[in-house]
Amino acid sequence: MEESETRVQMSALQHTKADTVASRVLESPAVYAAWMAEHDRLMRGISREGRFTRQVLALRQAAFTLVHRKAMMEYIRERRITGRKRMRLFALFYGNRDYCNAVLAEHHNFVRCNSSYVCTHYIGEHLMQDAVFDEPMQLYEEWFSEYFRGFCDVELATTEEEQHLVAPVAALRPLLKHRLTEARTAILAMPEHPDREWREVTIRKPNGDTQRMRSIFGQD
């Protein structure tokens, strides 16, 4: 927890998107206290594991959970979801809960999860020196964002034109979900200091014969 508190304090001086969001827990004593209590439970669950290898595994699993929990607000910001479409999105995940309360709850959840994710990454990469928290976890986050974006785009498509545009994405959803499952399994099985890079990271590195392709979701 001491390392996490220090890292959150540092977020106010950093300029990444994640740090910008994470630093917001410092703006209110109530928000900071809520984050502290939530993050403490998360860290205690990891520290209770007796062996270091089990702690590393628990930290990786916690990172997956945080990636999933912060995805909704990232989707709203990236797609600039507003109005009735935003209301449908919250109804999709919150059911019949009051819309305003759901928005507030999700926003606070987003800030806390970003703060915990920044700390988790710091602990995994710099303290545990777990190579997973370099490119493999970053790649997983990118893939989950793709999957979640596609899932929401399909679910929110109501007009015939929108449904036509997302039809290829709808067809790919099972494949994207399967890719995530395989990635989680591979990442959890990786040693802290692998002898060679994860294959998915290696093949994505640019060389003279490759170039970045346009995303099927309409954004790079």
Outline the structure in words.
It is a single chain. It contains 10 helices and no strands. The chain is mostly helical. The protein has one domain (2-202). The relative contact order is 0.11.
Distance between the termini: 36 Å
What's the rounded overall pLDDT mean?
A: 84
Q: Give me the count of strands.
A: 0
Shape: globular
**Total individual domains:** 1
Which stretches of 5+ consecutive residues score pLDDT under 50?
Answer: 206-220
Please, how many helices?
10
The proportion of residues in beta strands is under 5%
Sketch the topology as an H/E string, one letter per element: HHHHHHHHHH
Q: Give helix % range.
A: over 70%
Main sheet specs = none
Structural class: mainly alpha
User: What gyration radius follows from the Cα positions, in whole Å?
Assistant: 19 Å
Which properties best describe this structure?
73% helix; mainly alpha; 220 residues; 0% strand; 10 helices; single chain
Chain-wise SSE layout:
Elements: H1 2-11, H2 17-22, H3 29-47, H4 52-69, H5 71-79, H6 83-94, H7 99-127, H8 135-156, H9 160-189, H10 199-204
Helix pairs in contact: 1-7, 3-4, 3-7, 4-7, 4-8, 5-8, 8-9
